[in-house]
Amino acid sequence: MDGRDFGRELSTAVVAFHEAVGARLGVTAVDQRALALIAGKGPLSAGELAKEINLTPGAVTGVADRLERAGLVRREPDPGDRRRVVLSAVPGAFGQVFAGLGAAMGELTARYSPQEQQVIADWVVRTVDVLKEQTRLLSEIGKNAPDRT
Amino acid sequence: MDGRDFGRELSTAVVAFHEAVGARLGVTAVDQRALALIAGKGPLSAGELAKEINLTPGAVTGVADRLERAGLVRREPDPGDRRRVVLSAVPGAFGQVFAGLGAAMGELTARYSPQEQQVIADWVVRTVDVLKEQTRLLSEIGKNAPDRT
DNA sequence: CATTTTAGTTCAGTGTACTGAAATATCGAG
DNA sequence: CTCGATATTTCAGTACACTGAACTAAAATG
């Protein structure tokens, strides 16, 4: 098993898991990426989110609707500018869905020695960087339409 | 960084990458899971694939159409039973899309010692198992509709 | 052979997420 | 206080994948 196959199996399993989560909660893959952004970068306004995920404002309303209905984000008017709507992740809600996974992963990780955990953490961090870079490349090249007949 | 966060960042990056690939090739997330199945389990008939990914035969025709158009699978009549259509992964085609990723991952993995690679491989395998198990759990529970008002 | 069963495609209908434009509400400048 | 600019929502129209049923072709059964 080399680096390639690592990725293949793992990424298939990850995608399948996300699909299951999405089906369970009634949110799309895009919604989940939006949630990850909100959770990661802190509260975002609808407009900021629209730019980040490259969607029209109208579509973002839909994203926010679904995430709010699933109990994953809160939608609050910005006290400083009441035109704005600030989306923030509901603390713990994300974790609640991923509770089973989080627990299982914690348990799994605990079975490795601290040095081993260090190696794994290092690999994951670097893998994430690689994925981000490759995603960026794909998106840029992807601006030429895929060749169809 | 503990086991939970491993998963979060990594899985977000994986999903984003898959979305980019899908957009580039004009295939859906489901199509990609189908491709992974075909590549992993060897050639499958349309009917077998339908059972595996829980889709109607009609939908599978669409999956096969898109994968074939993207040059990722071949569609050939089964010589032993000419009603059947066998879907097989086009060798290298998958790799061509994932070439950049594969190369980068190979390079990344090579930077670890054999023992470290062993640890990583072990962790990945177990993580895949955990993901599959959690996906299964979600899908089963998910048969109760998500609670909506 | 005739008949039934099985495999896959085609097609009409449905659901859903996206775009683009109009509507609503609030801010900031003069 | 008025007016133009900005943020979000609403809404009609569009695109697309899925279901279920009808259809075509080939195999198995008697």
Automatic annotation (TrEMBL), chains A, B:
The keyword DNA-binding applies. InterPro entries: ArsR-like_HTH, HTH_MarR-typ, MarR/SlyA-like, WH-like_DNA-bd_sf, WH_DNA-bd_sf. It comes from Saccharothrix carnea. GO terms for molecular function: DNA binding; DNA-binding transcription factor activity. The lineage of its organism: Bacteria, Bacillati, Actinomycetota, Actinomycetes, Pseudonocardiales. Keywords: DNA-binding. GO terms for biological process: response to stress. PROSITE patterns: HTH_MARR_2 (PS50995). This is DNA-binding MarR family transcriptional regulator. PANTHER family: TRANSCRIPTIONAL REGULATOR, MARR FAMILY, TRANSCRIPTIONAL REGULATORY PROTEIN. Pfam families: MarR. Residues 1-129 form the HTH marR-type domain. SMART domains: HTH_MARR (SM00347).
